[in-house]
Design a protein that fits this description.
Keywords: Signal. Pfam families: Laminin_G_3 (PF13385). By secondary structure, the protein is α+β, with helices and mostly antiparallel strands. The chain folds into two domains: about 35 residues; about 250 residues, Sandwich (Jelly Rolls). It is about 15% helix and about 30% strand. The strands form two sheets. Strands 2, 5, 7, 8, 9, 10, 11, 15 and 16 form a nine-stranded mixed sheet that branches. Strands 1, 3, 4, 6, 12, 13, 14 and 17 form an eight-stranded antiparallel sheet that branches. The radius of gyration is 26 Å and the shape is globular.
Length: about 300
């Protein structure tokens, strides 16, 4: 009886050692499981990395992690939970003014601007998300505005680019307005990923919402395909000029000299903004979709 009991105890001890050994082996083999790639990318910064010229993540700081837009001073800036980390929180008096803009931004020929925004309807004018100013032009070089018009579920957005030629192009021919039949629906009260691009080679404008390309009429997508100042030829590449400073959440008129005071309709952005990026190329459809999914996944 004692012999059988000893054999049983020995068997249990051996089984316990084998179990522990197998458990250790499993832990070493299976830890940790890597993220599944999205569009062939592991991280949002893996998308067109050589074309990313400026990036603001607003993780408790107003700094551009790429160092292209520097010398920033925030006015009434605060932060709130964003898509990744924290986000810039705007108000009726908030904006960020930057004094220095590198050539990588000044000399953009093509462009993609990407950002997350969360905002509510407003009245009384147009809120500016950002602007690349121009010293001698009322409208600056590049901007995106949200107009305070239309039903509460829609967003009337304007994007503006600059191309200097002789004779000069009327400013009204230099911005895209998503209004009327092309007003953007269901844009308020939740985080939305907004991307627009301009391809200087094809003179083509594109807009994406939450990773999906918006179907636009040729009157918008090919708005720059015919330039009256060049006898009907395409507008071609961007050509910003007399660049001075950069602003997030306001207009160049909020920066003081050499601009005058802002008009009453020129409003500061009052919503949230996160992961603001500028590329020197027009991203492809798959790249924009991957960027949206990766940032949404906090990668």
């Amino acid at each position: 009886m004692k012999k059988n009991k000893s054999i049983l105890l020995l068997s249990l001890a051996l089984a316990s050692q084998i179990f522990v050994s197998c458990e250790d082996s499993i832990d070493k083999t299976n830890s940790p499981i890597p993220y599944e790639s999205i569009g062939g990318y592991e991280n949002s910064d893996d998308i067109a990395p050589t074309h990313l010229v400026s990036k603001f993540s607003f993780d408790g700081t107003i700094e551009d992690s790429k160092g292209a837009i520097t010398g920033g001073t925030g006015t009434n800036v605060s932060y709130e939970t964003g898509v990744k980390g924290t986000a810039y929180k705007g108000s009726t008096t908030s904006f960020i003014a930057y004094n220095n803009v590198a050539n990588s931004v000044v000399n953009l020929k093509n462009i993609t601007v990407s950002m997350w925004i969360k905002t509510d309807p407003h009245t009384g004018g147009a809120q500016s998300l950002y602007m690349l100013p121009k010293k001698t032009d009322f409208w600056g070089n590049i901007f995106t505005l949200i107009e305070g018009t239309g039903p509460a579920t829609t967003m009337l957005m304007k994007n503006h680019i600059q191309r200097d030629v002789t004779p000069s192009i009327p400013w009204s021919g230099q911005f895209i307005e998503h209004g009327g039949a092309n007003v953007l629906a269901n844009m308020f009260g939740a985080w939305k990923h907004v991307v627009w691009s301009y391809n200087g080679t094809s003179s083509t404008y594109s807009l994406y919402i939450d990773g999906q390309k918006v179907v636009l009429p040729t009157s918008i997508s090919k708005r720059y395909a015919s330039d009256p100042a060049t006898g009907g030829g395409p507008f071609g590449e961007l050509a910003s000029s007399e660049v001075s400073k950069f602003i997030i959440g306001g207009y160049q008129q909020h920066l003081g000299a050499p601009w005058g005071n802002p008009d009453g309709w020129m409003l500061n952005y009052t919503g949230l903004m996160d992961e603001f990026r500028i590329y020197d190329s027009a991203l492809t459809d798959p790249e924009v979709t991957a960027l949206y999914k990766l940032e949404k996944d906090k990668r």
